[in-house]
Amino acid sequence: MPRSSTGARNHAWTDPDCPVARTLDLVGDRWSLLVVRDAMDGARTFTEFQRRTGIARNILSDRLRKLSAHGLLAQRTASTGRRLEYVLTDSGRDLFPVLLALRQWGERHAFEPGEPHSVLVDGEGVRVPDLAPAGADGTPLTADSAHVRKTGPNP
């Protein structure tokens, strides 16, 4: 049976050999990435996630459970000792470039020119520059210049 990087069993990978498909199986729904986004922005409690996203309680419970089961979030007792909170794991933090790429695509394609939207800034308050994937030699990568190499028993 296929397992995630955290060892959690997954009986129904969409495409077991494709990293993109497996990632989408784990976080490819609208709510999961918004929960991860808000965790990166400091949300910790069920109430904070619900307030920020407007998610229905049952859906939020499901997403928090799934993200925790797959090792993207960890539960811990809050400093008050009265409730649980959720914190990003290293795997969850590794989604930062994914969310950054989605944000930057959205800034370019999901808004009309001049339409206001939030902006991601660094610690100095400067807008985060656009991601620019590059090959090992520094040459810019595009959808036309990068290709998938199949591995495994039937490459």
TrEMBL record:
Q: Cross-referenced Pfam families, in alphabetical order?
A: HxlR (PF01638)
Entry superkingdom = Bacteria
The record, for CDD domains, names: HTH_ARSR
- What are the entry keywords? DNA-binding, Transcription, Transcription regulation
State the SUPFAM superfamilies in the record: Winged helix' DNA-binding domain
Q: Which PANTHER family match?
A: TRANSCRIPTIONAL REGULATOR, MARR FAMILY (PTHR33204), TRANSCRIPTIONAL REGULATORY PROTEIN (PTHR33204:SF18)
What protein am I looking at? Transcriptional regulator
